[in-house]
């Protein structure tokens, strides 16, 4: 219900924003937006129905804490029973009665019993009594008494004894003696191996003793208990490259589950299809994009290796301090990953020198980033919970592509716009810096939990990404307004596919866990998911294509204020949701107090005034003149009075219009505003189909 309400409210607000109010009933069902929303709702309703009807139901359970109860065996504190039990039993029993205050009387009785047992003549009985008294003394922070009691145990094979001694030495601040006793515990059958091993790992890791860690790795039972990250660094420190490479591979492949792999693959496939749909003019060979994707996958181990080397030989890490963490995120997370993702593109350029189209740079860099994100997702999707799938799909994957596109766009500036070799280098280096900073800010805001700032930042970088894509398409050597119309066919693609990801995660939660967990997931994550789906579906394919036009997004040249003004201009709200790809569209033009005249939009042109460019003028051919038959057509220039307006069937919009003194003027390289006399304003609308 919440989801339906939010979507309905969005439809109403969106229609008012784009169209100045609700369109006529006869046209509302023609809107791509409504078709997309209908499809999204159908997917969500179907998934909710499937989970509610067939998903497992949560069984009612009591909220009794299992540890807060003594079993029949544990309640038996007779001497005979205590002498028959193992050290593990005594250790766990003492921990339980010492943790819960309601067992204070039981603890006192147990203390008396251990004292009685410790006074027996039988050595094995005395060992049990001294162990019990030693453990209880350690819990009471009487460390000297604890060490004396534990040290008086005669049996060398008495389990848990050395672990408890090591624990006491840790509390006393003596890690060297603690480590010695933990090592002894590992040699005893029936000892507290798991806890002793864990404590040794922590001690050696904190001390940076990779030689001792290497010895732990040799133990037969170490495999599952030794963290992959620590094992990698241990092998790397000791120069065992083969074992290190195997551990890197295990880091990526071992946690992978079938559901996690399927989720990562679906996310990558959807965004790969998005990249293919961006390629409007000259199709890039899919095999090359797949190769870039594969290279991005293979470079994740290289970044892992860099991080391991840095952590081994540098003490720098995130500390919680704002300046330190921001710098760390930019230099040690952003820069290495951005360099790795762009490396396949650089290598390809060494062979090709220059790509055929500006957009190829964005596509190849994004495909590489997509491969990198795919492997990252395999690591993150080992545990499907807390909205991790759609969170990664909507944010992390897109963030990787955007940051790589910053770098790629710097190369575009150098290859297609700047003729100065010095400016090419400046653009490339500036782009690398911007990509690293963007990546670092992304991670920094997430690490520090600045959610509101993160949302604003992410929306801004998505908008900049769209402007960069738009510029690359505008300056394709084979630009075609006819091909530009293809963007209208894929308006609903993003909304449907991203909603499918959200529904897929909901289904996984509902069938792997319970329907209650799935519905809680829906309620918790719906608002954030809708925000991202709306952002992407109203932005990514709403491209305003103008042949030869560069919007003001640049990484080189101009003063700081010039760049800032260009940035603000490119991110104006009134340019976000309104594309004007009308070339080839039949229209009717009506001047004030005149009869409507039929015509067709034949071209879009840029008019210049001093150093400013106005790309929103269209060449309109009026009347029934047929140029092919030798008739002279009448041309005018028109411009929609507001960028929020849109040409639609049955709805006239106000336009400014200028006279065209001579059609030959359009052959000039730059058209000036003052070359076309201003005639006033009129109304334009899409011509009705006959």
Rough outline:
elongated
**Radius of gyration based on Cα positions:** 35 Å
Q: How would you state the average pLDDT, rounded?
A: 82
From the N-terminal CA to the C-terminal CA, the straight-line distance is 43 Å
Proportion of beta-strand residues: 5-15%
Count of separate DSSP helical elements: 27
Helix content: 55-70%
Q: How do the strands of the widest beta sheet line up side by side?
A: 1-2-3-4-5-7
Uncertain spans: 15-30, 61-66, 555-577
Task: Give a short account of the largest sheet.
Answer: 6 strands, antiparallel, barrel
Structural class of the secondary structure composition? Answer: alpha+beta
DSSP summary, beta strand count: 7
Q: How are the elements arranged and paired?
A:
Elements: H1 2-19, H2 25-28, H3 32-54, H4 72-75, H5 79-84, H6 87-99, H7 104-118, H8 123-139, H9 143-151, H10 161-171, H11 175-186, H12 193-207, H13 210-217, H14 228-237, H15 241-253, H16 258-278, H17 286-298, H18 300-313, H19 322-352, H20 358-380, H21 388-417, H22 421-447, H23 451-474, H24 481-484, H25 493-512, H26 515-537, H27 560-570, E1 586-591, E2 597-609, E3 612-622, E4 634-640, E5 653-659, E6 671-672, E7 678-686
Parallel strand pairs: 2-6
Antiparallel strand pairs: 1-2, 1-7, 2-3, 3-4, 4-5, 5-7
Describe the structure.
The chain is of the alpha+beta class. It has 27 helices and 7 strands. The protein has helices at 2-19, 25-28, 32-54, 72-75, 79-84, 87-99, 104-118, 123-139, 143-151, 161-171, 175-186, 193-207, 210-217, 228-237, 241-253, 258-278, 286-298, 300-313, 322-352, 358-380, 388-417, 421-447, 451-474, 481-484, 493-512, 515-537, 560-570, and strands spanning 586-591, 597-609, 612-622, 634-640, 653-659, 671-672, 678-686. Strands 1-2-3-4-5-7 form a 6-stranded antiparallel β-barrel. The radius of gyration is 35 Å and the shape is elongated. The protein starts with a helix and ends with a strand. Mean pLDDT is 82; it is low at 15-30, 61-66 and 555-577.
């Amino acid at each position: 219900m919440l989801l339906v309400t939010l979507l309905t409210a969005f439809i109403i607000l969106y229609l008012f924003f784009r169209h100045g109010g609700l369109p006529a009933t006869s046209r509302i069902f023609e809107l791509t937006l409504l078709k997309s929303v209908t499809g999204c709702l159908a997917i969500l309703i179907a998934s909710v129905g499937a989970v509610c009807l067939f998903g497992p139901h949560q069984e009612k359970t009591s909220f009794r804490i299992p540890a807060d109860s003594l079993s029949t065996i544990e309640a038996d504190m007779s001497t005979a029973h205590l002498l028959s039990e193992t050290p593990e039993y005594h250790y766990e029993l003492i921990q339980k009665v010492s943790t819960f205050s309601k067992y204070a009387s039981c603890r006192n009785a147990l203390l008396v019993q251990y004292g009685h047992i410790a006074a027996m003549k039988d050595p094995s009985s005395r060992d049990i009594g001294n162990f019990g008294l030693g453990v209880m003394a350690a819990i009471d922070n009487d460390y000297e008494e604890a060490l004396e009691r534990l040290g008086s145990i005669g049996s060398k094979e008495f389990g848990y004894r050395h672990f408890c001694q090591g624990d006491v030495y840790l509390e006393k601040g003596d890690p060297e003696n603690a480590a010695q006793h933990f090592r002894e515990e590992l040699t005893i059958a029936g000892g507290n191996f798991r806890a002793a091993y864990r404590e040794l790992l922590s001690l050696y890791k904190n001390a940076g003793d990779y030689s001792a860690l290497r010895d732990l790795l040799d133990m037969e039972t170490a495999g599952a208990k030794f963290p992959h990250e620590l094992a990698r660094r241990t092998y790397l420190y000791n120069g065992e490259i083969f074992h290190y490479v195997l551990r890197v591979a295990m880091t990526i492949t071992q946690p992978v589950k079938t559901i996690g792999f399927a989720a990562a693959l679906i996310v990558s496939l959807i965004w790969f299809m998005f990249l293919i749909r961006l390629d409007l003019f000259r199709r890039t060979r899919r095999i090359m994009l797949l190769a870039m994707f594969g290279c991005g996958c293979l470079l994740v181990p290289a970044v892992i290796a860099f991080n391991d080397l840095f952590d081994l030989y540098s003490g720098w890490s995130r500390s919680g301090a704002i300046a330190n963490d921001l710098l760390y995120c930019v230099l040690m997370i952003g820069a290495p990953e951005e360099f790795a993702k762009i490396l396949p593109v650089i290598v390809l350029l060494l062979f090709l020198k220059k790509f055929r189209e500006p957009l190829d740079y964005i596509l190849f860099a994004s495909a590489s980033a997509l491969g990198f994100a795919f492997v990252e997702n395999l690591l993150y999707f080992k545990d499907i919970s807390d909205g991790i799938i759609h969170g990664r799909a909507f944010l992390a994957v897109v963030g990787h592509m955007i940051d790589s596109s910053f770098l790629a766009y710097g190369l575009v500036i150098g290859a297609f716009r700047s003729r100065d070799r010095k400016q090419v280098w400046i653009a490339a280096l500036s782009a690398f810096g911007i990509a690293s900073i963007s990546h670092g800010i992304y991670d920094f805001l997430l690490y520090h939990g600045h959610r509101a700032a993160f949302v604003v930042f992410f929306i801004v970088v998505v908008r900049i990404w769209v402007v960069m894509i738009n510029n690359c398409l505008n300056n394709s050597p084979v630009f075609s307004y006819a091909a530009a119309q293809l963007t209208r066919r894929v308006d609903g693609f993003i909304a449907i596919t991203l909603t499918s990801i959200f529904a897929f995660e909901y289904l996984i939660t509902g069938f792997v866990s319970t329907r209650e967990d799935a519905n809680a997931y829906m309620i918790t994550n719906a608002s954030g998911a809708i925000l991202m789906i709306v952002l992407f579906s109203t932005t990514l394919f709403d491209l305003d294509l103008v042949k030869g036009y560069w919007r003001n997004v640049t990484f080189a040249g101009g003063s700081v204020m010039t760049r800032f003004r260009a940035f603000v201009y490119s991110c104006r709200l009134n340019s976000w949701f309104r594309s004007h790809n009308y070339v080839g569209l039949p229209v009717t033009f009506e001047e004030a107090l005149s009869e409507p005249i039929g015509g067709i939009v034949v071209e879009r042109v840029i008019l210049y005034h001093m150093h400013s460019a106005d790309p929103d003028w269209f060449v309109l051919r009026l009347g029934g003149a047929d140029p092919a038959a030798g008739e002279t057509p009448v041309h005018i220039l028109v411009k929609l009075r507001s960028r929020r307006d849109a040409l639609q069937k049955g709805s006239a919009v106000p336009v400014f219009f200028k006279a065209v003194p001579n059609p030959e003027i359009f052959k000039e390289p730059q058209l000036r505003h003052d070359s076309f006399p201003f005639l006033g304003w009129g109304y334009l609308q899409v011509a009705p189909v006959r």
